[in-house]
Amino acid sequence: MKFEYHVEGGDFLNAGNASGNIKKVLKKLNVDPGVLKRVVVALYEAEVNIVAHAYRGNITADISPQKIEIVLDDEGPGIPDIGLAMQQGYSTASTKVREMGFGAGMGLPNIKANTDDLKIESVVGKGTKITLSFNLA
Amino acid sequence: MTTRNKKPFFHHALRINKNKCIGCTHCMRTCPTDAIRIRNGKASVNPDKCVDCGMCMISCKHNAIIVEQDDFQRIFDYKCRVALVPSVLMGQFDENSGTKSIFEGLKSVGFTHVYEVSRASALIEEAQDEYEQRSDVEFPLISSFCPAVIRLIQVRFPSLLKHITLIKPPLDIAAAHCRNELEKTGINSSDIGIFYVSPCAAKIVAIKHPVGEKKSAVNGVINMDLIYNKIYSFVSNDKADSGKLCRPADNTHVTWELTGGECIRRDNHAMAVDGIHNVIEILDKLENGELDENITFLELRACDESCAGGILVPGNRFLTVRNLIQRETLPPCRKTADKNDAACQNCRLFGKCGSEYLPEAFKLEKLQPRSMLSLDDDMEIALEKMEHVDTIMQILPNIDCGMCGSPSCQSLAEDIARGVAELDQCVFLRITATKDAEDVKTLKESVRNVWGRINNNE
Lengths: 137, 458
Description:
Number of domains of chain A: 1
CATH architecture of chain A: 2-Layer Sandwich
CATH topology of chain A: Heat Shock Protein 90
Largest interface: A-B, 24 and 25 residues
Number of domains of chain B: 3
Oligomer: heterodimer
Shape of chain A: globular
Distance between the termini of chain A: 16 Å
Radius of gyration of chain A: 14 Å
CATH class of chain A: Alpha Beta
Number of helices of chain A: 5
Structural class of chain B: alpha/beta
Distance between the termini of chain B: 33 Å
Largest sheet of chain A: 5 strands, antiparallel
């Protein structure tokens, strides 16, 4: 089953809406609480990444009894050096974003730690597409 | 629902008086766990979802929700009858009524001893400090104080169960301490009856059907509103004792049961939240990983103003808080026990609840999840049902009028997918679709099935 959400860059008020909604869905689907926690934490981080760095993006979650796959596709500046971005503490977040409690450079490493598989594709000047996968079976 | 045929997991203290209930939907709309539906003109509670928070009782305008309690006469089954009282009972009386009057009042109705639960608070603080040092705990810790919150987490936030401190609430430690102290004076354990004066429904359930404990040390429960009625005239007529509000000699925090009671001695890494809908908001944030990592302790209480706002507490919650804060500012008692003073006698008899009770405090067992949100235990079937819900939601009006007997359109759609409701319960759909007389007739029938009547003359 597929679920789609739209995220606006800079809209911190609504950051977390998509992950909150997916959480409700997963609870109704009787997904194991441990997996649920990982999905929600990873997705929240990734969602906030779009809000903090990109102009806009779409989140598509595809849920089956075997697997949860969530694609976050954004229009934005892209990531020039993915390897560097994956390092803990590395951050390009603006002072404004940091003042709001985001952008501590823990985002991508935290996402990776919570997913079973993480795929990042990025084109500088165009956008970033990340795919989070969680195994259920 | 797949759990339909199983024995209900939870025992409940809240009951619906079918003679008084008119099916007005107030309780259904306020229930934080979506546990109430209207069927045949009456509210009906799903026992698997109810957490005994009492929001339904507060919202009920017809006094149709009652709280079970033990027959008061049961106290006389015991030679030694202890009233185990939360401090909020003392908070029902202002500084013009002395602590002694309240204690004497409790004795005048048949109790032989009075023990204030908050006397175990210092020990719980010690237990919490020790618990925090363990290597296997998950921060932020969530206090195990409020039984409605524990059940809420079991039902709605099972992934957060491991945050709850496995420490018994003060009530249980107080009961154990009280029993031991009495036994030391030579009284037979079987002659001791400990009765808790409860400010809420959730604590009654916690005693009758404890979570994480095999058996509660308490023998019975008496509701606070009943006790208040019984002792009110005694206390207000006992003018001789005016102005003698006192605080026990040991390190008792009489404000422990109030909002912030557990946080006050902690640094700013602790946070207190009261009111069940506020608690849900914070638990949601915690589950999303949105809470500041510097928060290490959460004091979560289901009632507004914590136990002062308990559904069985007779007085105004803000006045109760004020009275207790005033008492907390008193210096601990230093005088030699007065033989004729009931409050003094109790202080002297029940010594400090010391560290020897610490092992007792850690006896709470691992808490089990009981997610009641899922559409089906089998995810494949749950997915099918969810698609069904989606289809239904596209035709429902989304105005949450409650006429169908479910709290929202979403709930009705889920009830239909679970096979416990029908689409024609939606009155809105029926009205917009109805064209001929035959349809009106069946419309009336389906309204009657939910509401038991079509208008008040029926």
